[in-house]
Amino acid sequence: MTFNEGMQIDTSTTSSGGAGRGIAIGGGVAGLVIMVVALLLGADPGDVLSQQPVDTGQYSAPGFDLNKCRTGADANKYVECRVTATGNSVDAVWSDLLRGYTRPHVQLFSGQISTGCGTASSAVGPFYCPTDQTAYFDTGFFQELVDRFGSSSGPMAQEYVVAHEFGHHVQNLLGDLGRAQHGAQGATGAGVRTELQADCYAGVWAHYAAITKQEGTGVTFLKPLTDDDIRDALSAASSVGDDRIQQSMTGHVNPESWTHGASAQRQHWFTVGYQSGDPKQCNTFAASDLG
Where is the signal peptide (predicted)? Predict the structure, then answer.
């Protein structure tokens, strides 16, 4: 998905870098997958991070130069600008759809960072912390999504991830995010339903992304979606399905331990949001069949 070059990137809610105490997460790819299964695309990291051994050494996380993020052309060129511009677009869509919508903060980091939900490392992947209403992105993870999880490398794959995290912010504003921690777990549990709803909300954003105009410039944030764009988003959704990750890492699938849903389910709910453009169609908590 390509940004219109005439759109202007607003970096006012985006920060980069950070400092704090690091955590040690070992295990190579296995360690990464454990963290991703638990946290990727929005779960509250507090529960998992609190179980990790803490390195008492200090660190200083490098920042990104957000001064170069000015226009849609920059978003098409630099991943950190793309994350920020995608957030601008998602904010504009939800401001139209949800009365009282407030923008989340966006934090870009590399390596490790302290958050309102605990200390996180790059192994965590992107996540949303409801405590500080911030979506955290280590942009290096997008390459991990391709190299380790087999996702498409297209920009829409990255933009889907951003829209999903913002979907958790919408859930937080509506008072639904906490439902993930209650009731049954596993393949039909509240945690999976929460993640699938965020996938659906990402689809809702995609429905409006190319027709929503930026206030001040009068241009749409993005150019019309192509079939390749949708394939990129569906590829990313599929690559982080619980069944696909479990099969790859262990050779078998255990639905009782699912936290985010199967690949087909994640694709299904993104498609529901994309085709309908209606957040009311994203009520995964009432669905008898998750797809």
Answer: none
Nearest-angstrom CA–CA distance, 172 and 234:
24
Task: Give Cα 91 to chain centroid, integer Å.
Answer: 14
Length of the chain measured in residues: 291
* Gap between the Cα atoms of 121 and 115, Å rounded: 10
- Structure tokens that stand for 166 in this block: 């913002």
Query: 71-88 burial by CB neighbour count: b if 16+ within 10 A, else e?
Result: bbbbbbebbbbbbbbbbb
Model confidence at 21: pLDDT above 50: no
- Distance CA(76)–CA(279), nearest Å, equals 28
Residue 213 structure tokens: 């105009």
CA-based R_g, the chain, Å: 18
Q: Which tokens sit at 248? A: 């790859």
Task: Give the global pTM.
Answer: 0.85
